[in-house]
Design goal:
Radius of gyration: 17 Å
Number of strands: 4
Largest sheet: 4 strands, antiparallel
Number of helices: 4
Oligomer: single chain
Mean pLDDT: 93
Strand content: 25-35%
Structural class: alpha+beta
Helix content: 40-55%
Distance between the termini: 30 Å
Length: 111
């Protein structure tokens, strides 16, 4: 699983976003198992300045393939992109997983 923090190009971004948004939304609809979360990053005035996505992909190669086809990425909308692996802790995928995580952490700090 990956989290992507993407900042739009401040000069060309608004026009690209307007032109490509329908293709982006269709791409999201076509990938229902990949997207765990996604949405616009906004400034304090509510203006869109980027995107955040949490994607369920098995490895970096799959992510690179995804980004090669994703309309916003392909159109060079983003001026900068920070990509990091992540794992889901909350909400729990399996009941008790968070309690297990806490027990492991307590064992580490106790020893």
């Amino acid at each position: 699983m990956y989290v992507l923090f993407c900042l739009d190009n401040p000069v060309t971004g608004p026009a690209i976003r307007r032109e490509i948004r329908a293709a982006h939304l269709q791409y999201v609809l076509d990938q229902p198992t990949v997207f765990h979360y996604g949405g616009p990053l906004q400034d304090e005035a509510g203006k869109t300045v980027g995107s955040i996505m949490i994607l369920d992909l098995p490895d970096r190669a799959a992510l690179e393939g995804f980004l090669a086809e994703e309309p916003y990425s392909r159109s060079k909308l983003y001026e900068a992109m920070i990509i990091r692996r992540t794992r889901r802790v909350v909400p729990e995928v399996e009941p008790g997983a968070l309690a297990d995580e806490l027990a492991r952490q307590l064992a580490l700090t106790a020893g």
